[in-house]
Write a structure and sequence with these properties.
By secondary structure, the protein is an alpha/beta fold. It has seven helices and seven strands, in the order ααβαβαβαβαβαββ.
Length: 208
């Protein structure tokens, strides 16, 4: 996806750089590397063969950190209603400042552990889509994510090349929490001479 001409991503990078001087938001600081390894990577979630994030979907990004993947997706898909969850108050402060600067609408941030969100009535079974990127191994991630999803909704977990190994150990939890593995979307990121294998694990919530 071409980021050229999207001033929001320039603002995003500038704020990442500024705030990164006072807190650890990202180890990636090179401008082009941020484009590839953060922005393009996050937007890959919109390039799956089947489109899971339908118009006006209620989406939650758990363990969002510096807003990945939720905010890049929201920039490109302003129709979605987005909730960002993170356990560190400092990161929530950054996200709130970024949202205000980008003038994003229908987006909210909550300072809460993802593990606790599924037990909270504000969040339990409220979302069509749960997004996550580099949050936790798939087995515990299922326990965190599936309670947040409405029946018929999807968990989209962005994983490394080890996704298949994680799925093997997570099959019991997928079934236990009412899920069904739909597919694994494989893609590559290219930066300089690196080719980085990535996967998006798609799990559907079938029963409460």
């Amino acid at each position: 996806m071409n980021l050229e001409g999207r001033h929001e991503f320039k603002i995003y990078k500038d704020m990442l750089s500024e705030w990164n001087q006072k807190m650890n938001l990202t180890a990636i600081k090179d401008s082009v590397e941020v484009d590839i390894k953060h922005f393009h990577d996050c937007l890959s979630i919109l390039n799956t063969k089947k489109q899971y994030i339908l118009p006006n979907s209620h989406v939650v990004d758990i363990g969002t950190g510096a807003g990945f993947p939720g905010i890049p997706v929201k920039i490109v898909r302003p129709d979605i209603k987005l909730t960002l969850i993170d356990s560190l108050k400092k990161r929530i402060s950054f996200l709130e400042a970024l949202i205000e600067r980008l003038q994003l609408r229908e987006i909210s941030c909550f300072h809460i552990r993802a593990e606790d969100a599924g037990k909270d009535k504000r969040f339990r079974e409220k979302f069509d889509i749960v997004l996550s990127r580099a949050v936790a191994p798939l087995n515990p991630l299922i326990e965190i994510s599936l309670p947040l999803i409405k029946v018929g909704g999807y968990m989209l977990a962005m994983k490394s090349k080890k996704a298949l190994e994680e799925i093997k150990s997570a099959r019991c939890n997928i079934k236990r929490f009412g899920g069904e593995l739909q597919c694994i979307h494989n893609y590559n990121l290219k930066f300089n001479n690196e080719i980085l294998e990535r996967n998006i694990v798609v799990i559907k919530k079938c029963i409460p």
